[in-house]
């Protein structure tokens, strides 16, 4: 019985594979054509198909396809071959596509598979709120990032800036001077409008809703000292608390720690750690470690204790790091994204004490100025504003970049391209 089963298995293998099929010999036909499959992942990508004899040189070869979206050059030759393969993405509908290339050589023939997936719309999902002056003054807008359709959420005659969603995505907090000076307002994330949350004589900027939705952090301009000071408040505007500032900062740089007397917070949105225990704000000091230079860095506040010492870290000795950067913490709390002109920069803060290193500058391919990064809820993307230094004058637009590389590239999508300024994107929680 066992012998019979063995015979059946051997016969079956011979039927399936033929007499030359041996899994230990990858290209039994005497030549190889690779890669197979050819998988297209990036717009504009070229992938080279190599056709070569396993031993020596082919006398001749040719390639053909019945898929009109597969483009090849050259299509025949003598000796071992190298074919540039591209695809016409514009001719393909959204979805998965697969085609084949027939390879005919002096040593035999084979078939190579070509695959790609065309996304629906931009390939992104979700909604982003941002501030734009496309109406002549600043208003908050929300964009469907898949089809780029925009809903206008505010239309006041004042300037409405710096949106921040509640964790459930139902409301947007923002800063507006519609009442005569800058106050903190909130509105429905679906229908817009606005009601005051923090309204007083001082200018109050950049609300940032805590991860548990119970508090906001914001910066208040204190006229007596002309300084921006971090405050927190209950989500309904009560319990306004001034956080300790400008004293007792413990400052780390090049493995040294020392006390500083003075720190100036930057013009930026505070960023909460995902557990709600810390608030990060960009700062600058005068003088810095280099006396003639402002020293931008990152100050860390204890959210629970307004009198706690601050910790701070200078993130780069050189120039270019903006003290006005809108730092944002990744959803898992391990990464910190900020703007180091002209690029978005990501730091590893998994050790919790800001001693983590630079992960990667997410380089733009030009000298455009990128700023105000915010993480998507799944941590896979960062939205930011980009000010081109060449084309389109000097107007910021909203872009999205992957936080991982695809074939060595950070893929980007431009979401706005109107002639107005579009700034400070923030993802709506799903
Ligand atoms: Ca307005
Ligand atoms: Ca005010």
Overall description:
This protein folds into two domains: 31-118, Immunoglobulins (Immunoglobulin-like); 127-427, TolB, C-terminal domain (Neuraminidase, 6 Propeller), CATH 2.120.10.30. 4% of the residues lie in helices and 46% in strands. The protein contains one helix and 36 strands. The chain has one helix at residues 2-17; strands at 31-34, 38-40, 47-53, 61-64, 70-73, 76-77, 81-87, 95-105, 108-118, 127-132, 139-144, 150-152, 160-165, 171-176, 183-188, 192-198, 203-209, 215-222, 227-234, 241-242, 249-253, 256-260, 264-265, 271-272, 278-284, 297-302, 311-314, 328-329, 335-340, 343-348, 358-362, 369-375, 381-387, 397-402, 412-414, 422-427. The strands form eight sheets. Strands 21, 22, 23, 24, 25, 26 and 27 form a seven-stranded mixed β-sheet that branches. Strands 2-9-8-4-6 form a five-stranded mixed β-sheet, with no helix packed on it. The chain has a four-stranded antiparallel β-sheet with strand order 1-3-7-5, with no helix packed on it. The structure holds calcium ion (CA) (2 copies).
Summarize the topology.
Blueprint: H1 2-17, E1 31-34, E2 38-40, E3 47-53, E4 61-64, E5 70-73, E6 76-77, E7 81-87, E8 95-105, E9 108-118, E10 127-132, E11 139-144, E12 150-152, E13 160-165, E14 171-176, E15 183-188, E16 192-198, E17 203-209, E18 215-222, E19 227-234, E20 241-242, E21 249-253, E22 256-260, E23 264-265, E24 271-272, E25 278-284, E26 297-302, E27 311-314, E28 328-329, E29 335-340, E30 343-348, E31 358-362, E32 369-375, E33 381-387, E34 397-402, E35 412-414, E36 422-427
Parallel strand pairs: 2-9, 21-27
Antiparallel strand pairs: 1-3, 3-7, 4-6, 4-8, 5-7, 8-9, 10-11, 10-36, 11-12, 13-14, 14-15, 15-16, 17-18, 18-19, 19-20, 21-22, 23-25, 24-25, 25-26, 26-27, 28-29, 29-30, 30-31, 32-33, 33-34, 34-35
The structure holds calcium ion (2 copies).
């Amino acid at each position: 019985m066992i012998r019979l089963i063995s015979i059946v298995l051997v016969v079956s293998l011979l039927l399936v594979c033929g007499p030359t099929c041996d899994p230990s010999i990858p290209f039994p036909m005497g030549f190889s054509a690779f890669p197979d499959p050819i998988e297209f992942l990036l717009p504009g990508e070229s992938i080279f198909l190599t056709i070569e004899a396993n031993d020596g040189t082919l006398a001749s070869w040719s390639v053909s396809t019945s898929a009109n979206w597969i483009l090849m050059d050259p299509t025949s030759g003598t000796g071992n071959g190298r074919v540039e393969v591209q695809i016409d993405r514009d001719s393909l509908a959204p979805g998965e596509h697969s085609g084949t290339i027939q390879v005919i050589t002096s040593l035999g023939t084979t078939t190579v598979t070509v695959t790609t997936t065309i996304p629906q719309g931009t390939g992104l999902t979700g909604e982003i709120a941002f501030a734009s002056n496309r109406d002549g003054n600043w208003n908050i807008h929300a964009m469907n990032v898949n089809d780029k359709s925009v809903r206008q959420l505010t239309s006041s005659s004042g300037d409405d800036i710096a949106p921040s969603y509640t964790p459930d995505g139902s409301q947007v907090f923002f800063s507006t001077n519609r009442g005569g000076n800058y106050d903190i307002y909130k509105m429905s994330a679906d229908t817009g409008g606005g009601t005051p949350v923090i309204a007083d004589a001082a200018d109050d900027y950049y609300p940032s809703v805590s991860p548990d939705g119970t508090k906001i952090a914001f910066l208040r301009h204190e006229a007596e000292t002309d300084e921006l000071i971090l405050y927190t408040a209950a989500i309904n505007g009560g319990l306004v608390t001034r956080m300790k500032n400008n004293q007792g900062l413990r400052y780390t740089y090049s493995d040294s720690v020392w006390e500083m007397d003075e720190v100036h917070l930057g013009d930026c949105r505070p960023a909460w750690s995902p557990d709600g225990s810390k608030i990060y704000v960009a700062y600058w000091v005068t003088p810095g470690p280099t006396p003639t230079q402002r020293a931008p860095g990152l100050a860390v506040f204890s959210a629970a204790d307004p009198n706690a010492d601050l910790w701070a870290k200078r993130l780069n000795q050189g120039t270019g790091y903006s003290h006005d950067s809108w730092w944002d913490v990744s959803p898992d709390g391990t990464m910190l994204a900020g703007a180091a002109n002209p690029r978005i920069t990501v730091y590893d803060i998994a050790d919790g004490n800001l001693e983590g290193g630079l992960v990667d500058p997410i380089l733009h391919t030009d000298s455009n100025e990128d700023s105000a990064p915010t993480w998507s809820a799944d941590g896979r993307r960062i939205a930011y504003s980009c000010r081109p230094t060449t084309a389109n004058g000097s107007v910021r637009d909203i872009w999205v970049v992957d936080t991982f590389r695809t074939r060595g590239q950070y893929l980007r999508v431009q979401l706005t391209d109107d002639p107005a300024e579009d700034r400070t994107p923030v993802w709506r929680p799903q």
